[in-house]
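# nightly structure sweep
# worker-07 picked up a monomer target from the shared queue
# config: single-sequence mode, recycle default, output format = C-alpha cells
# input follows
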Amino acid sequence: MGNRRKWAVAGGSLFLSLLALSIICLVPFCSAQEEKELEGKKVLMIVASSNFRDEEYSVPRQFLESKGAKIVVASSKETQSVGMLKKVTVKPDIVLEKVNVKDYHAVLFIGGIGAKEYFANQVAQKIAQETVKNNKILAAICIAPSILANAGVLAGKKATVFKSEAENLKAKGANYTGAAVEVDGKIITANGPDAASDFAQKVADLLKAIKKLEGKKILIVIALKDFRDEELKESKDSFENDGAEVTVASTEKKEAVGMNGMKLEVKKTIKEAKAKEFDAVVFIGGTGAKGLFSDKNIINLAKDAAKAGKILGAICVAPSILANAGLLKGKNATAFESEKENLQKNGAKFSEEPVVTDGDIVTANGSEAAKKFAEAVTRAILSK
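# output follows
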C-alpha cells in the first residue's frame, strides 16, 4: 500500500512537472504568435525637432514593434531630436513635407513641450486632415491633441489632452472628457506619459482590425481567352479577402473566358492601365497568356511597374512576359516547365521551386501553387 502511495505521489509530481514544462514551452510560441498580430502594418510617429516626451515616444514604439508593426519617424527637421528627459534620442526617417499619409495605417503625434512647434504648423495640420480623410488611424498624446484640434478634426469628437490644453480642445469643438485615453472612431487621444501604455494598446487594437492589404491596389492581367481559371480566382479572392482593391485588365473591354469556362467582365484595357496607380501588377497564366508574350503594351506595363518600384507577380507561363521584358536577368525565378528555356535564355536563374521571390518579383510554376503565389505577392507588398 505504501509503495502504491509513493508511486501515485511520484506520478502526480511527474504530471505536474510535465504540465509546467509544456506551459513554459508554449509561452514563447504564444508570444511569437502575438508579435505577428500587426505584421504588415505601418505606423508614422511624428516627434518634435526637440523636447518630445521620451516615454510617449519609446513606450508606444517598443510595444507596436513587438507586435510586428513597422515604425517610421517623422519630424520637421532631418537632424537628431532629443527628448525632454534627455533619455531618448531619435534620428527621423523622413521630414514632414515628404510624408504621404496613404503610405501608413496610423499616424501618431507625440507630445512633450516641443510639440507646440506643430500647433500652428500647416504641414502638420494637413497631415492630420489627410489622415482622417483617408480613413486612417489618427492618434495624439499629451499636448499633441491640440494639433488635431487646431486642424479641425476633433470638432464633435470625444477627446482628451494634457490639462493645460483642455480649453483649446473645447474652443475647437471637441467634447473634452478628461479621461486618460479616449477613442472616438479612428481617433485616439491621451493625456500624458502615464497613459502611454494604454495609448499604445488602443492604437494596436484599431490596427488589428485593419485587413492586411487595406488601401492597397492590385492590377491583375489576363488573356481575354484561355486564362487559367484557378490562378485568377485564387489570386483575386486572396487579395480581396485581405482588403485590397483588385482591377482586372486585358487586351479589350469585354467578357473574358478561362480555360475551364470561368467568365469575367473586363472593364480596363492593358493600354489604359498605369503601373504607378497600383501597388502590384500580377500576370496570370494559361495557354492564352502565350499570346501576350510579345505584346508591346504588356511589355511596357511590366517595365513601367519595375521602374516605379512596384511588386511584379507572374504565374504559370506568364513569367515569360517578365523575361521578355528583360526583368528576370540575374533573378531567381520559376515558371511552367515549357518556359524554362526562355527564362534561362533571358538571363534568369531557373528554380524548380513552386514559388520564388527575388526582390520585388514573385513567380510561380502553375495552378497548384496559386494559393502560395498569392500569399507570396501579399508578403512582398507588405514588405515595401
